[in-house]
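User: Is it possible to get a 3D structure for a protein together with its bound compound? The compound here is adenosine-5'-diphosphate. I've pasted both below.
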Amino acid sequence: MTVERFEFQTEARQMLDLMIHSVYSNKDIFLRELISNSSDALDKLRIESLTNEAVAMPSEPKITITADKETRRLSVRDNGVGMSREEIIENIGTIAKSGTQEFMATLAERREKGEAVSAELIGQFGVGFYSAFMVADRVELITRPAGSEEAWRWESTGDGTYMLEEASKPEPGTIVTLHLKESDEDTDDYTSEWKIKSIVKQYSDFVSYPVTMLVEREKKDDDEGVLNAQGKVVTEERLNSMKAIWRRRADEVEEKEYNEFYHNAFYDSTDPLETIHLKAEGTQEYYALLYLPSKAPFDLYMPESIRGVQLYVKRVFIMDDAKELLPTWLRFMRGVVDSEDLPLNISREILQQNRALRAICNRLTKKTLERLDSLLKDDREKYLRFWNEFGPVLKEGLFQDFEYQKNILEVALFDSTHSQGKTTLKEYVERMPEGGNDIWYIVGEEKSVVENSPHLEAFRQKGYEVLLLSDRIDPIWSSNAPEFQGKKFRSVTSGDLDLAGEKEKEEQEEVRKKKTQEHGLLLTRLKEILVEHVKEVRFGGRLTSSPAIVVSDEGDLNPQLEKIMRSMGQEVPTMKRVLELNPNHAVVEKMGSLFEAKKDDPLLEDYAWLLYGGALLAEGEMPPDPVGYGKLVAELMTESKSRGSKSRGLRVEGSRAES
Ligand code: ADP
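Assistant: Yes, that's possible. Here is the predicted structure of the complex:
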């Protein structure tokens, strides 16, 4: 028989290298990974047997563990779907997973720092099979695909190559045999019966196939079994309970059991924040057990790698991540839905059109939102933990799902100028001054930037509260937000502001008019200079201490949204904005007198660019020519040094109006 030698694909080789040479805080999970591969193989076989007559489910589907202390071997055997030669090369020799590079970078970084890598990280990523190399220096796999006579033996020491040869195997399925490394501590003895049992209990108790172990016992008088060469009785013990916890009555399940199932089924060792368990009867009969995790997985923003909610039909696992069961903005939820009515051989395509499923999805969405609502009311501290992890994802629903906009706004939390903590909209509205009609907000990329934005000066002075929106998702929903309790969302950066009272408004308007008359030509000159960038230069009423800001006209696309759309490859025209000057700022008078003396004083150009650049910087954006901007500032600094601040009293920021 010919033995062929293959090289692992580069990424696979790097991953193996990390597996072998890193320190892991919990190596036990390798067994869970092998068991779940076997369980997957049985699932696949079952699904295939529904449509392919050439394959059949074995009469006793199971996963069997055997350990041998003498030879330090541990094997996991299943009678599942097996693999063909091509499938071995494809599945075991390569890694085709999104996020591999990021994941490996994390591992490499920990290794460099000498830190241990925790098992959850591996579990989350699901490098499955390779985790065997944490504990074995040689791994062997013999497999025969269902519906075929061929069988193959694969073997590797994880050193970059593997070998493959033809083999023979009496029944379909796979046996993975680990040649365990020498262990120095007792706790690491993976041939110990006790150790194996406890790992299976901890991680694989709910696996829906029996996980059994062959164990040797001293022969007792009433034993019937066969004796082995050592004169001992070999029996097969089942290690997992397989109890479908979601089918039990909610009042009979303890929190501990819920948590255990969660850890086991969703590879997260932290306890979930909340559990929702329900049974639906009537037109649709199904069981649902949903979990609100307490930590976001590292791939929360890589939607294609989400595991989501598992779909079962009559206790039989159908698929992971049944996307039709919850909207994408609840993709952080984990859980199980077990239907009594759906057909077993339901495919993803059919799922999408299935009405019954849509009804389940609506019900689960409502239930989840209801739970969030009561959590917000009953335990704000816990709710905050949820919000900090998943708030931005939930907010995606605000523009994806108009049906739930209102419910999402009810439970959304926001930073605000009111206090350090977060506020709900209801609380915001309660604090509104009499007659207030608007929910004011500002959007930007960083909280620290929006918080200090000059746009807020007038609002602060008036004591108006403003919501500070700095999540990536905020520009998208906020520009189109629905009303909340009859109040409109309004951006502080767009349109004309009318914050002042009647009398004050008149006074302000008076000042504005007077200044505009006085400096009308100057404004035109400034606009000429900046014409490529702004559509208007005018006096505004928003500023008290800053000299200038940029604002959008009502109805214009806001610049954050513009950026997001562009980053998604959409063509959007650049919206010119308005440069609003503070009519009471000393720099206006200064420019006024320069302009009086010499209409085309080049210094005016410098001033225009400085004001515009400074206004952009205050929003966390770049001036059009950052290098030129820096030079300009330096030139003016040295000028003023040599000529004295009297002659060119420009201070770029914070110079108060002189009255
Ligand atoms: P994952 O299980 O996350 O896909 P693994 O590295 O654990 O990643 O396994 C890679 C692939 O190898 C699996 O997707 C499966 O196709 C195949 N495989 C692994 N173990 C078995 C097995 N016991 N029976 C059949 N196929 C298997």
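The pocket of adenosine-5'-diphosphate is lined by residues 33, 37-38, 41, 78, 80-83, 91-92, 126-130, 174 (CB under 6 Å). Residues 274 and 292 are 5 Å apart (CA to CA).
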